Amino acid sequence: MSIEMKDKTPQRVVEHYVDPTPFNPATTEEMTAEQERFYQASQWQIMWWKFKRHKIAVWSGVILILFYLCVPFAELIAPYDANTRDSLHLYAPPQPIHLFHEGSFVGPFVYGMTSEIDMETLQWVFKDDPTQVQKLRFFCSGDDYEFWGLFDASFHLVCPAEGGTMFLLGTDRLGRDQFSGLVYGARLSLTVGLIGVFISIVLGLFFGGIAGYFGGLADSVIQRSIEIIRSLPELPLWMALSAALPVTWSPVWIYFGLTIILGLLDWPGLARAVRSKLLSLREEEYAKAAVLMGAKPKRVITRHLLPGFTSHIIASATLSIPSMILGETALSFLNLGLRRPSISWGVLLNEAQNISVVTVYPWLMAPVLPIIIVVLAFNFLGDGLRDAADPYK
After folding, report:
1. Residue 232's domain spans which residues?
2. CA gap 81, 366 in Å, rounded
3. What global pTM score does this model have?
4. 211 contacts 224 by C-beta, under 8 angstroms
5. Keyword Coiled coil, does the record have it (predicted)?
6. 275: which residues sit within 8 A by CB, 6+ positions away?
7. Count of domains in the chain?
8. How confident is the model at residue 101 (pLDDT cuts 50, 70, 90)?
9. Pick from 352, 351, 346, 334: nearest CA to 371
């Protein structure tokens, strides 16, 4: 006797969704063209498209471009020469810019200042004088300077009124304008990082390329040297080498000596990154094919291996510049780096070593603001470049 079993489990009906919109072949063609554009793009084009999506990195790049415009045109932007002294305005406070006076539009101007001695503290006390409306002059003639060492000029984008003052960030103990000092200081503080990174890249690529491609004894010697350098404390080593620079050197030689010191101590990190990349890339088929075809090691490294991670080198260099800017600032602040008449942000901060002076004249800490902005901008820009150079993102 057979028992017939029936499956009484209800069957689930799978619904199919059909898009009611009519088929548009133009849309498909556009998608195909976009895909072909992506697949045919070069490495740099793909990196640029990915970088543009990182909005913070893009704006950081714009900010850095604006800062670096101060390097070649510092004389035009600054209203005064960085070493011009005003004995009547020692430790003068910042003068804010106004547009309206007594309810009527006047244009950009500052109020004049009156000064008197406080007999209790024996300090000069400055107060705004509303009766002195000093309109700012634009595209005007001011302090003389030698533009790029080529010719004498006196043209400035903005100048104080005739017989007036314009201390946007106050003055120091000798009556020197802080804002002009910041503009001139950007020339040395920003370029010291670029030159130092260039030295670091050259040394890092050279030693890292030798260690990664040849290996063996050369790799062991270079790695042990890197470990010795990285085991030394960074700031005391900077201080020792900077103190060894002769005091009789000119400011130009001191500047180049400082950049060489910063570059010589920064290459080990990049060298290790280059070594690790070459160790993996030298086993690729295209590298072995170049060797079998008779290419010399120099050509294999420079033409076949290094271009494979050039974008990573650029990102690493961008992240190294802030440390060099901070290194120069620290050494100049401690009076071991650049000194007057050279102007850098660290030299300006040297005026704020005494905390009692800073509490009374807080505007002497103004150079801290551009340092923070530039360091953060470089870090954000480096993060954006690193993400854009990563093929897995």
Report:
1. 180-389
2. 18
3. 0.80
4. no
5. no
6. 208, 209, 211, 212, 219, 222, 223
7. 2
8. confident
9. 346
| pLDDT score for 80 | 92
Taking CA 79 as the corner, what is the angle to CA 77 and CA 81, rounded to the nearest 5 degrees? 100
CB 137 within 8 A of CB 160: yes
Residues 207 and 268 in one domain: yes
Three-class SS state of 378 = helix
Encode pLDDT of 341-374 as tens digits: 888 898 898 888 777 778 888 898 989 999 999 9
Q: Which of 172, 192, 212 is the last residue of a domain?
A: 172
- Dig out the tokens for 109 from the structure: 């101007």
pLDDT in tens, 117-136: 877 777 788 888 888 899 99
Residue-averaged pLDDT of the chain? 83
22 inside domain:
no
76 lies in a domain? no
Report how far residue 232's alpha carbon sits from residue 236's, in angstroms, rounded to the nearest whole number: 8
Q: Per the domain annotation, does 9 fall within a domain?
A: no
Query: b/e string for 286-313 if b means 16 or more Cβ within 10 A?
Result: ebeebeeeeeeeeebbeebbbebbebbb
Domain at 369, CATH number: 1.10.3720.10
Whether 108 and 217 map to the same domain: the answer is: no
3-class DSSP assignment, residue 24: coil
Calpha distance 229→214 (Å, rounded): 22
One domain for residues 304 and 360: yes
Are the C-beta atoms of 186 and 72 separated by less than 8 Å? Answer: no
Rg of the chain over CA atoms, in angstroms? 31
Residues 6+ apart with CB under 8 A from 334: 239
Same structural domain, 352 and 385: yes
**Neighbour tally for 208: CB within 10 Å:** 27
| Residue 209 shares a structural domain with residue 164 | no
Plot region of 107 (φ>0 → left; ψ -120 to 50 → alpha; else → beta):
left
Does residue 54 belong to any structural domain of this protein?
no
92/191 same-domain check: no
Residues 196 and 329 in one domain: yes
* Contact in structure between 153 and 76 (CB atoms under 8 Å): no
